[in-house]
């Protein structure tokens, strides 16, 4: 039972990590996947520990073994030594890390600490030791392929805008599917494509070679083609270059290995003749012609289909391109299939594939090399969809530039350097292990903290400024940084061992000489690949790329060598060994992963698949070297003895037939004297179908958790809901077809007759019943509503989401148990009973494992859910609710500094809320300070935690206590020690000195900042302002002029920063110093480079206006208006200038525009009233004055104007009323004038009556 729990665990891991995500948490993807995996692995460890306790570990009563004997035997197993060394290095690097907690548990963003890394390796170890039968292999591979279906379909759904979930980012241009990142989904899928291909080849081979092959092969072939199409299309829709290169590398290696098989099986296995080499090269021409013709047919069909879909109002782009690609591939591989099926070219087809690969590499390089005579032909190709991304592989700008800068800086971390840390700081102490960092690294997940020490200033100009790299986008460089030289060597020991054993197990290492030759090719290839970039550039920047590609080149060269000289022994069998295709597929997937992780970085899905494939590789080789139907590979032959079966005479009755059935099953069970149980030689078809159905249930309940929200509509009338429903249906049907096809192709092998009706029912019931039950519970849980009237209600409402997560974990763990029970069904009587003397071990063992699952996995995600809910309240300025939720998050995951930072932010924002009284705000500041200090204490080497304290005290000094500026200076200084090239902290340090009027100190700090990054405009701006405060006009002008030179994302917009809310103050400084013309000239220089920027012309006009030159000001305002500047500021200032110049015809349209923008614009109405009065348009003048009075009933000027206007119009009574209102608000000095005016009006009214 325990071994089957372990199997259920690796099946669950293979499904959950790529498929699961959690929309209710703040992080959603990677950490949520990893915590679920770690919980599953914890259960696997528990089952393994029970197994070891009950059965012993590697020794028997008849054959006792010492510890060292067992250790030596264990280390002699393939991959055990390199993996063990890697584990040891991880443990050492974690223990001696600059941030041990982060290295152990993982960072907030990634959670890829040693705990997670060791969890992947545990899966590898348990699969290598516990995977023993062909049925287990098939079940695992089936699940890998089926799991990729909903992920691929979801990517396609996103591409066409049918996503039922509202993501914040754009997922239509580059799909992200269940990974949250376009690169990640492609990285995952390239590890599923090779296994799908090998399954497709197996089914196609059976169909081609056997006319009476089972219909199951036809079904399976069709399903695998469908699955492969989905996988490849989603990779293309991701538009990720690294994975594209990975999948091309995978295809090349797999094709080479597959075509080397007929080379070995050829009748004449000797060396290739010159004629055969010519045939191999010449065969490129018919391949190209065939592929071109079928590509044209595919394009025509695709174009017709695209037009047909358009006529039906379905706008789907790229159908013609996909048709061309599929057609070309069909013709290309169809010709290879024809040659193989007719036994033609078996000796040299592999060489032709090599030539095609060389041409492919040349084509990709040609796409990336510009400025050649081929550009007229290649430029149209570079503009094609997806080819455009391949044409940017070697770019040194944008993301390519980012990688180069990170690699250069990471190399500085690997070299000897000054220790990280701050002298005298109680938390961020000087790194006492600095001298051995090149050997052991900084610890897993520690690069973010360490990288700040070597951050290259140029990186801020191609990526977001202030962000530190936590990965190198290169696995080789990452291993050097986090685990040092020892970890780097262990990593390559693992990789080279994998390549060596895979090639050896494929039969291409026939003797000892070949063994040494392969190792030499791999190691020397890597060394040469690492040296070539240095010889070409004189730097090691591209060493992390050259080394892995050198290893790959060494592998290819070795295979080419073997292909040319020919195998020593030609197999007489015409059929492939049982697992040869699968080994090729696993090797292809690992190679694809190895290539792409040197352009991106590994994620949870690729890590678990890499280690699972390594474990599967070891397991299937052990299976293949034993009797294929026997599950005894882990036990020496002498230890196996049959179970004694007592037979009794029986009659030919129904009861006797049942008895024979039971005896048959019992006779097929074997045990060892040590108690190791070896299960039935073959699973029954009921067990097979039931276990596959339950595995499908894992997929379905994850889809329910991922997508079914309280707002989800179970209807096909809503296209977004329908997209999810169809995704579920198609996934289920694919799984159903694979299982039924598998049952059909093994129909003659099952122990009992196959009943199709029962098989269909069994699969449907096991897969759908559990799914439907979970879906009902899920909808009930997440559909609950809590009336929020108190803080407790806020917590309870959020707990609905966290409890929903717990329910999912429980359902998943129960499903694992049900799978284990299914896999031992009918064999429970043969299982040994528990050893009673061990009972006392299990309660504390179970408690320990459950404690780890709850507190270090489930609570980690629960905390993140509370964090996300708290952010919602914070955005609504509901501080108490946000604080309560974030305090809950802190209580659940008190080791994570990020939660403390978010809680401190709540208090900081609360302290700045003017709705609160002074005492409440003061308390909030103090509480926030304590929490922020706690965050720094937890993770002191993160420079942002230190810099945040500086910002905190800086704000506190501005609002409450100026004495806190000294604390700000202290922490900004510490931040620059941890991140010496971060100019933001240098500038904040200088700004604090500026506020304290320590201008000389500010200048010194700013000059340091300029020396680090001379193109950062805020530095120049602050330098100019500081010189201005010192009264040094020339230096201020020079600094401000320098700021004007830069305008980019990394540098900032120097002009826009100058023309901010302090623009008038800066202009006044220059004008009062008699240098107004100089600053205007500097602004005019900006205009020469920004001819279409109306903001620049407004600024020049405003400067002229402030400098008392309205004519020139008007000229520049008119330019700004002509360029479409309709901002309030420009319209108002230009209109006021026209008004002052009495250019009423030009002023009126501008004022009317202002009124269009704001109907209650008092200034614009007043100006229009004045203009219309001047023009004699009394009615319009009166109307606009009335509109002013609606906003300002006691506006004296408008009341005075109304009285005069009504008098001029002859409406004496209205004039009298307006005059009385004006007199009521008139200044004392004008009271007598109003008395006279009113008396005159009374006389006029009397005379008129």
Fold and architecture overview:
70% of the residues lie in helices and 1% in strands. The chain contains 52 helices and five strands. The chain has a domain at 398-437 and 448-477. By secondary structure, it is mainly α. Helix 1 crosses helix 30 (791-823). The chain starts with a helix and ends with a helix.
Structural class: mainly alpha
Number of strands: 5
Number of helical elements:
52
Strand order of the largest sheet: 1-2-3
The overall average pLDDT, rounded, is 89
Supply Rg: 38 Å
- Give helix % range: over 70%
* Biggest pleated sheet: 3 strands, antiparallel
Instruction: Report strand %.
Output: under 5%
Q: Report how far apart the termini are.
A: 114 Å
Instruction: Give the low-confidence spans.
Output: 570-576, 626-681
Shape: elongated
Oligomer: single chain
Defining key terms:
1249 residues, 5 strands, 52 helices, 3-stranded antiparallel sheet
Précis, in short:
Helix content is 70%, strand content 1%. The protein is mainly alpha-helical.
């Amino acid at each position: 039972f325990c071994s089957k729990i372990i199997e259920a665990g690796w099946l669950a891991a293979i499904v959950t990590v790529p498929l699961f995500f959690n929309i209710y948490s703040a992080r959603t993807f990677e950490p949520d996947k990893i915590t679920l995996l770690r919980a599953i692995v914890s259960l696997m460890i528990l089952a393994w520990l029970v197994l070891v306790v009950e059965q012993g570990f590697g020794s028997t009563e008849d054959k006792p073994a010492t510890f060292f004997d067992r250790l030596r035997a264990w280390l002699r197993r393939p991959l055990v030594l390199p993996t063990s060394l890697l584990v040891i290095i991880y443990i050492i690097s974690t223990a001696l890390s600059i941030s041990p907690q982060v290295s152990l548990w993982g960072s907030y963003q990634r959670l890829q600490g040693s705990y997670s890394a060791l969890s992947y390796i545990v899966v590898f170890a348990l699969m290598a030791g516990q995977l023993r039968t062909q049925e287990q292999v098939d079940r695992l591979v089936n699940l890998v392929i089926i799991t990729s279906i909903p992920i691929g379909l979801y990517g396609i759904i996103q591409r066409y805008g049918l996503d039922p979930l509202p993501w914040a980012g754009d997922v239509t241009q580059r799909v992200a599917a269940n990974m949250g990142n376009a690169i990640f989904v492609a990285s995952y899928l390239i590890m599923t494509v090779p296994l799908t291909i090998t399954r497709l080849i197996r089914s196609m081979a059976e169909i081609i070679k056997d006319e009476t092959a089972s219909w199951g092969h036809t079904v399976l072939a069709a399903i695998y083609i469908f699955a492969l199409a989905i996988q490849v299309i989603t990779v293309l829709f991701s538009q990720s270059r690294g994975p594209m290169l990975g999948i091309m590398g995978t295809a090349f290696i797999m094709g080479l290995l597959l075509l080397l098989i007929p080379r070995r099986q050829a009748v004449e296995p000797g060396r290739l003749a010159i004629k055969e080499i010519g045939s191999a090269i010449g065969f490129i021409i018919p391949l190209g012609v065939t592929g071109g013709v079928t590509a044209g047919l595919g394009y025509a069909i695709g174009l017709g289909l695209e037009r047909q879909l358009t006529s039906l109002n379905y706008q789907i782009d790229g159908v013609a391109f996909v048709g061309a690609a599929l057609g070309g591939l069909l013709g290309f591989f169809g010709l290879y299939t024809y040659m193989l099926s007719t036994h033609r070219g078996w000796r040299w087809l592999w060489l032709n594939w090599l030539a095609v690969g060389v041409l492919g590499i040349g084509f990709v390089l040609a796409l990336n090399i510009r400025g050649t005579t081929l550009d007229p032909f290649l430029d149209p190709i570079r503009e094609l969809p997806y080819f455009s991304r391949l044409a940017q592989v070697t770019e040194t700008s944008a993301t390519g530039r980012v990688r180069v800068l990170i690699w250069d800086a990471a190399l500085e971390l690997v070299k000897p350097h000054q220790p990280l840390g701050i002298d005298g700081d109680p938390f961020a102490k000087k790194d006492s292990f600095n001298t051995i960092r090149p050997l052991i690294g900084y610890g897993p997940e520690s690069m973010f903290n360490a990288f700040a020490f070597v951050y290259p200033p140029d990186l801020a100009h191609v990526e977001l400024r202030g962000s530190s790299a936590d990965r190198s986008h290169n696995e080789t460089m990452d291993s050097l940084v986090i685990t040092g030289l020892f970890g780097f060597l262990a990593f390559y020991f693992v990789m080279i061992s994998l390549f060596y054993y895979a090639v050896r197990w494929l039969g291409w290492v026939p003797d000892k000489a070949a063994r040494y030759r392969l190792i030499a090719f791999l190691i020397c290839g890597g060394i040469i690949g690492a040296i070539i970039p240095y010889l070409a550039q004189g730097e090691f920047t591209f060493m992390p790329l050259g080394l892995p590609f050198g290893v790959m080149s060494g592998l290819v060269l070795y295979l080419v060598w073997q292909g040319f000289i020919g195998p020593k022994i030609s197999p007489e069998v015409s059929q492939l060994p049982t697992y040869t295709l699968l080994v090729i597929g696993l090797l292809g997937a690992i190679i694809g992963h190895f290539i792409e992780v040197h352009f991106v970085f590994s994620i949870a899905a690729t890590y678990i698949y890499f280690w699972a494939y390594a474990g599967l590789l070891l397991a299937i080789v052990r299976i293949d070297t034993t009797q294929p139907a026997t599950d005894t590979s882990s036990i020496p032959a002498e230890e196996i003895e049959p179970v004694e079966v007592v037979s009794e005479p029986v009659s030919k009755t129904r009861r006797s037939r049942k008895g024979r059935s039971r005896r048959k099953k019992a006779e097929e069970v074997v045990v060892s004297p040590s108690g190791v149980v070896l299960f039935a030689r073959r699973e029954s078809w009921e067990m097979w179908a039931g276990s596959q159905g339950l595995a499908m249930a894992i997929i379905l309940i994850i889809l329910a958790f991922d997508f079914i929200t309280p707002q989800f509509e179970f209807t096909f009338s809503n296209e977004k809901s329908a997209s999810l429903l169809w995704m579920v249906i198609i996934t289920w049907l694919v799984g159903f077809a694979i299982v039924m096809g598998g049952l059909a192709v093994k129909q003659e092998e099952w122990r009992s007759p196959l009943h199709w009706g029962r098989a269909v029912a069994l699969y449907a019931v096991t897969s759908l019943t559990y799914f439907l039950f979970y879906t009902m519970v899920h909808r009930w849980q997440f559909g609950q509503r809590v009336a929020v009237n108190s803080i407790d209600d806020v917590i309870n409402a959020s707990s609905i989401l966290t409890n929903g997560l717990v329910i999912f974990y429980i359902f998943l763990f129960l499903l694992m148990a049900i799978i284990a029970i299914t896999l031992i069904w009918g064999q429970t009587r043969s299982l040994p009973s528990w050893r009673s003397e061990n009972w006392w071990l299990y309660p504390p063992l179970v408690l320990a494992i459950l404690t780890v699952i709850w507190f270090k996995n489930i609570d980690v995600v629960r905390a993140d859910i509370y964090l996300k809910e708290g952010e919602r309240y914070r955005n609504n300025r509901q501080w108490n609710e946000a604080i309560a939720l974030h305090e809950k998050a802190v209580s659940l995951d008190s080791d994570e500094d990020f939660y403390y930072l978010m809680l401190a932010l709540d208090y900081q924002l609360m302290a700045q809320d003017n709705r609160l009284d002074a005492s409440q705000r003061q308390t909030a500041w103090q509480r926030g300070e304590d929490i922020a200090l706690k965050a720094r204490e937890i993770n002191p080497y993160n420079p942002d935690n230190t810099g945040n304290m500086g910002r905190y005290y800086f704000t506190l000094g501005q609002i409450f206590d100026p004495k806190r500026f000294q604390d700000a200076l202290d922490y900004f200084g510490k931040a620059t020690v941890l991140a010496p090239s971060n100019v933001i902290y240098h500038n904040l340090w200088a700004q604090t000195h500026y506020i304290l009027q320590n201008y000389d100190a500010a200048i010194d700090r700013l000059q340091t900042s300029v020396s680090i990054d001379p193109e950062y405009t805020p530095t120049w701006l602050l330098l100019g302002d500081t010189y201005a405060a010192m009264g040094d006009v020339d230096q201020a002008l020079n600094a401000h002029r320098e700021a004007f030179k830069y305008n980019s994302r990394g540098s900032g917009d120097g002009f826009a920063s100058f023309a901010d809310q302090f623009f008038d103050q800066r202009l006044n400084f220059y004008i009062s110093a008699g240098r107004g013309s100089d600053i205007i000239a500097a602004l005019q220089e900006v205009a020469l480079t920004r001819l279409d920027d109306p903001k620049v012309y407004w600024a020049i006009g405003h400067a002229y206006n402030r400098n008392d030159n309205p004519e020139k000001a008007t000229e520049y305002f008119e330019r700004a208006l002509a360029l479409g500047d309709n901002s309030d500021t420009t319209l108002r200032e230009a209109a006021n200038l026209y008004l002052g110049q009495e250019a009423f015809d030009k002023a009126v349209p501008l004022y009317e525009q202002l009124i269009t923008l704001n109907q209650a614009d008092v200034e614009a109405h007043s100006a229009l009233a004045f203009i219309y009065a001047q023009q004699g348009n009394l009615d319009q003048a009166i109307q606009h004055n009335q509109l002013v009075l609606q906003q300002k009933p006691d506006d004296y000027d408008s009341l005075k104007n109304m009285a005069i206007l009504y008098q001029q119009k002859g409406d004496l009574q209205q004039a009298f009323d307006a005059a009385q209102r004006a007199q009521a608000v008139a200044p004392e000095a004008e009271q007598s004038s109003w008395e006279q005016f009113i008396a005159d009006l009374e006389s006029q009214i009397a005379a008129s009556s």
